[in-house]
Amino acid sequence: MKRFATLTLLCCVAAIAVHAQRFALIDMEYILKHIPAYGQATSQMETSSRKWQSEVEAVTNEAKSLYENYQNTAKTLSDAQKKQKEEAIVAKEKQANDLRRKYFGPEGELYKQRESLMAPIQDQIYNAVKEISTQKGYSLVLDRASDNSIIFASPAIDISDDILARLGYSN
Q1: Which one of 32, 45, 112, 131 is most buried, counting C-beta atoms within 10 A?
Q2: Structurally, how many domains does the chain consist of?
Q3: Distance, CA of 105 to CA of 164 (rounded, Å)
Q4: By percentage, how much of the chain surpasses pLDDT 90?
Q5: Which domain, by its residues, includes 118?
Q6: In this structure, is residue 111 part of a structural domain?
């Protein structure tokens, strides 16, 4: 009987503790769509990406052209000439790979540009979420755009518009 009373008391305390927690949702895609700086940053990154991709493709096409030329003339070349052409092809392919890594690698130019353009926007959003969460007493704020496991959430707990208002982008 004593165990039953203790277990019942623990269940009641846990239920009160869970009930006391407040939750909120944000929709990061919605928020970012309404921040002009994000659109400008995305556009700038796409422009840079296209430019860098065309540079990589140009070098890759040069390597392909060298290889096709080599294939067409291989029968008439001496061993020394073949070796020289093969080395030129390998060097051009290496140059293309180095360019690809320089622009699109894990620490490449696109990554650096994304960090410099997006980090301030993300920091502003994070600080606004933190301020509103502290002010309104939310224990947890989830991003419904990135969490696929949320099947349904009441629009009443979505604070995306509050975040936009805090950032100065109210509708």
Answers
A1: 32
A2: 1
A3: 33
A4: 67
A5: 22-167
A6: yes
